[in-house]
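Page 42, continued from yesterday. The earlier attempt failed because a stray header line got pasted into the input along with the sequence. Redoing it now with the clean sequence only.
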Amino acid sequence: MNKLVELDLEFDFETANNALQFDSDELHGTSTAKRVDFVAEYEDCYRFIEVKDPDQPGVTNPAAFIRKFTSGELLDSLAGKFRDTVFFRSLC
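This time it went through. C-alpha cells are written below.
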C-alpha cells in the first residue's frame, strides 16, 4: 500500500506504481533544493503534490497564506518546487 502522511492528512496512492514522501531530509540530506511533499508515479504520468492546509490547528499565520495565495507569490513558490523536483527526479 502506498499510504503517505503529511501532518494530520493521509493520502492513499494505491493505484500508483510508486509514491514517495519527496520532502524527506533522509532523501535529500542537506540539499537546499525546493521540493514538493509527494511524488506519485503512474504508468502514464507523474503527480507532484504540495500540501497546504491553512485550517490545521496551530497554523501561525493563516492571513499570510491568504496573501501569498491571492498575490501570486504562492504560485511562484510552487513553480520553484516543481522545477527542482523534476530536475532531481530526472537525475535519479
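Notes: The two ends are 23 Å apart (CA to CA).
Reminder to self: strip header lines before submitting.
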